[in-house]
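Q: Here's a chain of 250 amino acids. Please give me its 3D structure as C-alpha cells.
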Amino acid sequence: MSSLLSLRHYSHERLSHSHAHAQLVFGLSGLLEFEVAGRGSLVTRQVLAVVPSDAQHACGSKAGSQCLVLDVPSEQWLQLQLGRHADATRRLLETPAALPLNSAQGQLVSWLAASPINDPVIAQQGAALLLASLANDATKKHEPTRLPLTALDAHIHLHAAHPLQVSDLARLAGLSTARFHVRFLSETGQTPMDYVRNRRLQLARQLLQGSNLAIGEIAARVGYSSQSAFTAAITRQFGLSARALRLHRE
C-alpha cells in the first residue's frame, strides 16, 4: 500500500484480487461495476464501495470510470487519527456495501481529487476527514433518537428475579455497553443499574401492596436472595419497612 489516497482509472478490463487492508472506492465519473464477496453494486459519482480487508473483489467499466481510492492504513493509524470515530469506522469497514455520499462528503471527495494527494499532509488529513464523516453518519443511522425505555422496562420486569447485566440492556437498545451507559445517564439522569434497582423496588412495592405473597417470596421475585438486604433496600427507597409499606395499601 504505497499511498493513502490515489486517483484510479478503470476500463473494460476486469480486475479481480484481494488485499490485507480495507479499501474505500469513491466514484468521480463514469460507471464502475463492482463486486465484493459475491455482492454486486454500481459505483457512480456520489457513491462509494466498501471493500473489507481480505475480501475478494472484482471491478470493470465498459465506458471508463474514474475513482478516488482510499487504502485504509493500520489499526494504529485509525486509533491515532480518528479517536472516538475509530470504533464506528471499524464497523463500517467490516461489511461490503455501496453507500451514498451526502453533499458535504461529495464536495470533500471532489476537492481531494483535484488536490495534490501525493502530499502526505493532505492525504492524511483528507483520509481522516472522510473516514470520520462516514463514521459519524453510520453512528447516527444506527442509533435510535431515544432509548427504547418501554422495551427495557418490560425486559427488567420479566427478568426481575434474575441477575441483569448492563450488556443485556445495551443489546436490546442496539448499542455498545459503553455507549449505552453514556446515553442512559444522559436521558434518564440515572446509571443503568440504579434504574434497574429502582424498577425492581417499584415492582416490590406493587407486590407488597397488591398481593398477599410472603415478604421473602417478594424479595426473591425482584432479585434479592437475602430478605434482610431486601427490607433494608425497601426502607432506604421508601422510608418505610416492607411490613409498614404493606399496611399502606393504596
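Q: Can you summarize the key feature?
A: The chain has two domains: 5-142, 149-247.
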